[in-house]
Amino acid sequence: MLQTQSLGTERPNIYCETLGPEQFGIIQKSLTIFERIYNQVWLRKIGILIFLALGWEIYGRWLDNPLLVPPFSAAVSALWADIGSGVIPARALASIQVLMIGFASGTLLAGLLTVFAISTKIGTDFLDTMTAMFNPLPAIALLPLALIWFGLGSGSLVFVLIHSVMWAVSLNMLAGFRGVSQTARMVGRNYNLTGLRFVVRILIPAAFPSILAGLKIGWAFAWRTLIAAELVFGVSSGKGGLGWYIFESKNQLNIAEVFAGLLTIILIGLAVENVVFRVIEKNTVQRWGTQS
């Protein structure tokens, strides 16, 4: 028979020795100055820009032909001079004003088309057909028709901008709405949300990462379409924004000013991407938890 230990027997006490932090090895290691700098995203991006600027400067000086590629310093000098004279700010403001009208109008139309598409089957068929037809069509190809229909003015520019924005934004909105989970949809139905309230309260927040991606694509399409269109409208009407500034500088063989105009376009693009859209993303998808 097995002998069992009586219930009154006391168990021996077990004492554990407290270990100091030096006995555990390295738990937390402080970062070096290089690691701290490297972990800053904005510093890495600035480093990339500096590297590209140095490469441009070296190549321009090595080529030694300012009519082909002036050095980076010459382009910056021309940019600074025309900013001081007010030429570039005036041209940039003219371009941005037209861009905002076309971008806002195209985004609004894209939203209406997408809501119509997710509400009815005929709306889905209509949007699928329209995007298949017009999304591959370059907006710049519509310039001759825009000149005939709207004349030499901002109306023609806004028309081609709406075309360049609307289909890209519509496709991303529709993809985002279709990707909303059934759980989120059932939450909306439980709260008796229907129609526009269901779209605003449930679908748009859940699909906003895709919507924001569409807005970024639409902005890029609109910005480059505007510059290309202004080259043509500038030739026709003798006025315009940054596109006309570049074309006029090229005709006068001021190649440094051509690159100054290109730098202005790039700087505006970087500002919109890293400031405007970054703020929107931080206050929407990151706050709502719809994007990791």
Architecture of the domain at 90-288 in CATH? Orthogonal Bundle
C-alpha-based Rg, rounded: 29 Å
The CATH superfamily of the domain at 90-288 is identified as: MetI-like
Amino- and carboxy-terminal Cα gap = 64 Å
What would you call the shape?
Answer: flat
Counting DSSP E segments of at least 2 residues, the number of strands comes to 0
CATH topology of the domain at 90-288: MetI-like fold
Brief characterization of the structure:
The chain is built from 12 helices and no strands.
Topology:
Blueprint: H1 33-38, H2 41-63, H3 72-85, H4 87-119, H5 121-134, H6 143-150, H7 154-178, H8 182-190, H9 195-237, H10 242-251, H11 255-283, H12 285-288
Helix pairs in contact: 3-11, 4-5, 4-7, 4-9, 4-10, 5-7, 6-7, 7-9, 8-9, 9-10, 9-11, 10-11
List keywords for this structure.
292 residues; mainly alpha; flat; 12 helices; single chain; MetI-like fold
Description of the structure:
- This protein is an all-alpha fold.
- The chain has a domain at 90-288: Orthogonal Bundle (MetI-like fold).
- The chain is 75% helix and 0% strand.
- The protein is built from 12 helices and no strands.
- It is flat.
